[in-house]
Design brief:
The chain is of the alpha+beta class. The strands form three sheets. The protein has a seven-stranded antiparallel β-sheet, with helices on both faces. A two-stranded antiparallel ribbon has the order 1-2. A hairpin with a 4-residue loop joins strand 5 and strand 6. The longest helix is centred in the middle third of the chain and has 12 residues.
């Protein structure tokens, strides 16, 4: 698994290049990591719920992800993407502005992903309070959004729930839950929302 370095070369390119980096840029850092290595480097713990089959991650133009599970009996899937902070490299050239700090990029990345996952349509989102982010995920920041899924990410499901987590000096992490009808899989979704958390 290859982790892509984030390279920002000027203020006019910040938004575009951040999107490319999160999606899996062709500017490859050359390093190969397993999902377990990404968990460790990102200070994360995954508690996989029972009743799921591991699937091979597939390339797609919306977001590259490193781990995928499919429910054995229900039309429900989850995908995990981890971006450790210490793997982010920022090359920034602008004499009038300081380079953006990696720990401050997560709100922009979240909104960009929401727009891309939903093809820009209206998507209700909710930012957790600082206390809830800490108690639920041991995170410094967390937010979630629900949307009709962009078929470029998945043609098998109608709905997508995106959970984004951030821990300063650790990582950004994303839990992407795919389903068709919320009420029929609500208990399973609740378990998936608690499956990933920071360990320190």
């Amino acid at each position: 698994m290859r982790i892509i370095a984030t390279r920002l070369t000027g203020i006019i390119f910040i938004f575009f290049l951040l999107v490319v980096s999160v999606h899996g840029s062709s500017a490859d850092s050359g390093a190969i990591y397993t999902f377990q290595q990404l968990l460790a480097d990102g200070s994360l713990l995954l508690e996989q719920p029972e009743g799921y089959i591991k699937k091979v991650p597939e390339e797609n133009p919306v977001l590259s992800y490193e781990y995928a599970l499919q429910h054995k009996d229900k039309k429900l899937a989850v995908r995990y993407a981890i971006r450790p902070i210490d793997m982010v490299q920022i090359d920034y050239e602008d004499p009038h502005n300081a380079a953006p700090e990696p720990n401050h990029l997560f709100p922009m990345l979240f909104q960009t992903l929401v727009s891309d996952f939903s093809r820009g349509s209206n998507s209700p989102s909710n930012e957790y309070s600082a206390s809830d982010a800490k108690s639920k995920f041991n995170a410094d920041w967390a937010a979630a959004a629900v949307m009709d899924v962009n078929p470029e990410f998945s043609t098998e499901y109608e709905q997508l729930l995106l959970l984004a987590l951030h821990k300063n000096n650790a990582s950004d992490a994303y839990v992407i839950i795919l389903f068709d009808e919320y009420t029929s899989v609500k208990p399973e979704i609740d378990l998936l929302l608690g499956s990933l958390r920071f360990n320190k």
